[in-house]
Structure formats: C-alpha cells, structure tokens
C-alpha cells in the first residue's frame, strides 16, 4: 500500500483542488486538514505555495458561484437541497442569516471557518439578491484568508504533520480504523445534536393551507416573518399583513401583539426550527397560540404554486413590511 505521505507528495495539487470542491458541494469531508498537509509539503519544498493557494481559492470560488446562482435562480427552495446535505441544517441557515443580516457580504470573510456555514452562505447570498461581482470579491477574500491560514498552520507545524502522515502510512489498514474511530463519533454527535435540536423545538406546526384559512377568518393571526432583511427584500413574502421582524427589536414588537390572536412565525429554514424556537419564546411569554409555519417560507411559496396549478386563487396580498 502506497504510504500516505508519498500519495500527498505525488498528487498534492489534485488533492487540494478535489478536497475543496467536494467540501463546498456539501459533502462532510473537511478540506482544511488537506490544506494543512499541503502547507507542510510547501515547507518541505514539494509544492509551490502560490500554485496551491490559487488552486484552493479557485476551487472554492467556482463552487460557491454555482451555489450563488442556485440561490438566485431557485430562491428558498435551494435551502431544502442544502439541508439534505448538512448535518445541522436549520441552525446553519439561521446562523448564516443572522450573519448576513448584521454584516452583509463581509460575513463571507469568516463563514468558511465555521462548520456548516461555509456551504450555506453562497446560496443565501444569491437568494438575498447581492450582485455577483460583489459576492465574488468578498467570497474570494474569505477563501484566500481561509486557505492561507490552513497553509500557514501546515508550514509552521510541518514536522508534526509529517510525523502523523508517516505514522498513518505505517499503520496500513489500521489507519482506516483510526480514521473511522475519529469520524464516526463526530458524525454521530452531529446527528444527536440534530435530533436534540428538533426535540427541543417540538411545538405544533401550522400548514400553509391552514394559514390561508386562518387569514380569512374574523380573527386573523399575526404573521411574523423572521427571515433576514436582505432575504425579505430579495424574496418578498406574499402573506397578507405579514410583519418583517428585526430580532434586535423583538421585545418592542411583542408589546404590540394581541394575546387574543394566533401568531404564526415564518422563517427561511425548511425545517422551520428557527420559527419553532421563536414560537416557544412567545409561548413562554403568554402567547399560547404561537405556531411555526410548517416548511418555512418555501412551504408557503410551494403551497401558492399548488393552489395556482389546481385552478384556485391563493390568498395573496402586499409584500411583507419592514424590509
């Protein structure tokens, strides 16, 4: 069996490019350790630093531009695709939305360092309506910072990295067992986190069809749209009287809500976990009829399409306020 160090030395450039592309398309195969190994090989004189950095940044930017275009073309539906790939999808969507809402595209400088956020951020940027050239600029800077950091770590600790690779090579098939021992508990922990997160947000959901009926009743609900401001601006909700929510002013908004009316919370997460968490907060404050909208905003949009295809007229009104 070819030693791992020899494999890295002979195919280092290909490994770097492939690892970055694979990770950016949602496969849970961290590229950062591969870049650290590349940094060690740079210190050894096997690889050229400029070539490795250009390859890594090019692979990251090219992959992200694909997700950016998907977000622009397919809107919130692309989040459903991302959630099928991510081990912690709803939290990643919520965290990335908050980052964009607060920092805009500057968030791309750091999202790649945070597991889960780097894959979802490009699609959310496209969904949010940012210009492609502005996205490419900040995403390229973020990719350069991310890849440069990994290469620098590998170069500084190149002796330690080489010892680890040599040990893994000598271990033979045992190296695969060791990797499984490290990877399987991590994946299991992420799955448990996902399960626990879902259990902690176990609150009854309201479907889009039920919401349409409620909106036509004498006592229509408050509809709170908690998607970030950029997303609301780029993809306005067609939910009558929906209120765009700034979470930093949430307490002021709560003071204006009637406890006699139901409250429906809408978020961008296809698993509606963000809306469920906020619904639980509202229930703890005495709003007993606070519910998340099942399927998030994409569930509402899909329901409208189904209604139109069925020959019925969905209950549409002006876009959400506050965006």
Folded structure, characterized:
The chain has 15 helices and four strands. It is mainly α and 323 residues long. It folds into two domains: 4-200, no CATH class; 208-309, Oxidized Rhodanese, domain 1 (3-Layer(aba) Sandwich), CATH 3.40.250.10. It has a four-stranded parallel beta sheet with strand order 2-1-3-4, covered by helices on one side. Helix 14 links the parallel strand 3 (263-266) and strand 4. Helix 2 (12-24) packs parallel to helix 4 (49-74) and helix 4 packs antiparallel against helix 8. The protein starts with a helix and ends in a 14-residue tail after the last helix. The model is unreliable at 307-323 (pLDDT under 50).
Query: If you compute it from the alpha carbons, what radius of gyration comes out, rounded to the nearest whole angstrom?
Result: 23 Å
Helix-strand category = mainly alpha
List the secondary-structure elements in sequence, H or E.
HHHHHHHHHHHEHEHEHEH
Give the biggest sheet. 4 strands, parallel
Helical amount: 55-70%
